[in-house]
Write a structure and sequence with these properties.
The structure is a homodimer of 203-residue chains.
Chain A lengths: L1 E3 H5 L3 H11 L2 E3 L1 E6 L5 E6 L3 E5 L2 E7 L6 H10 L1 E6 L5 H6 L10 H5 L3 E2 L8 E2 L4 E13 L4 E13 L19 E3 L3 E10 L7
Antiparallel strand pairs in A: 2-12, 3-4, 3-7, 5-6, 6-11, 7-10, 8-9, 10-11, 12-13
């Protein structure tokens, strides 16, 4: 099928949301852990993790201010701290359940059945079961005027990961640990490597 | 292992680049097709596709001005048009080879062995072999001052995809077509679905 811009605009709203979100392809499923200034733990799934640079090591997240991610954004603004956690594909149901609109003050950790873990000098909670745990410091919030979304930019403060997953050249072998991948609003995947390539040169 | 910010900064540069890029996780491999004002076709792999919104349907790309993506950025600025193409995992070597620094004026389509395809009223080239072909119009370029990268925002003008991949609710089943996923600078994957979930509600 070929859909023109017009056709997409005229789709039923739920159909269009599912279509465009899933059309944007596969992405890393990341659970963002934060603490409110009142001390409540919060955990929310995002599927918009962006690599911005390696030196300094910067990652971005896209946030929709009107979504369940609202509490996460507020906590990041209030505390300047957050954690990024990747879980195994076997935890996909728990990961998805963090997208429910729990009331502020309710901990998604408790509700979905994942354990909080704390690291020295960092107040935001990690997921104990996570395969990758990254401590982040807020660096910048960039508004995207065209549709009111926000780009949250943070710097990596700490990375916790099993030694066996980090290869000799620095490559992090997430696939062998069956790290969870998402697509669209509700689909979850594991991966199989088809290959690694050498640095590409003109032939 | 636990790496602190300091440890990451002191890593060997190539190791750090591989580590932080791959740490950012899995993402959609997307081949961006453009045409220069001189009429030369260009094709370059990006691994930074971002879903920004469904209505209007907006997608973002992160661009490093000092990279091989430089020609793509210039062509997008000059013509306001580009295409996004997802290929099968069996084409991973061709997809990767588009990251080589070919001279301006050399067509990566020819060099890597993928075919150009043109759609009515759109001058940027698509990949004939692609599973998903999206025509984009440039909407906005947002500079990210912290490290000199750029967020390219475009609106979806047209989507071409086999009917059987679009499910009843609008979900695009990329996994069943073995659409290529990337991680870091050089690793490629296919996916297996672990599940789709209903809209999550508080219990």
């Amino acid at each position: 099928m070929i859909l023109q811009r017009n056709d997409i605009e005229q789709l039923d709203q739920r159909y269009r949301t599912a279509f465009v979100n899933s059309l944007a392809g596969f992405r890393q499923a990341v659970l963002v852990g934060t603490k409110s200034i009142e001390g409540h733990s919060n955990l929310a799934i995002f599927n918009s993790l962006i690599h911005l640079g390696a030196n300094p090591a910067l990652l971005g997240l896209i946030n929709r201010p009107d979504s369940v991610q609202r509490d996460t954004l507020q906590n990041i603004k209030d505390t300047n701290e957050y954690t990024l956690n990747y879980v195994s594909s076997k935890h996909y149901q728990k990961a998805h359940q963090t997208s429910a609109r729990y009331e502020k003050g309710i901990s998604e950790f408790e509700k979905v059945g994942l354990s909080e873990e704390y690291h020295h000098s960092f107040t935001a909670p990690f997921i104990a079961e996570a395969i990758v745990k990254i401590a982040m410091k807020l660096e910048e919030i960039i508004p995207i005027p065209i549709n009111g979304t926000i780009l949250i930019i943070g710097s990596i403060q700490q990375v916790s990961i099993d030694d066996v997953l980090v290869k000799e050249d620095g490559f992090v072998d997430l696939s062998s640990a069956s790290v969870l991948v998402s697509q669209g609003l509700d689909a979850y995947f594991s991966t199989s490597m088809v290959g690694r390539m050498a640095y590409a040169k003109p032939d």
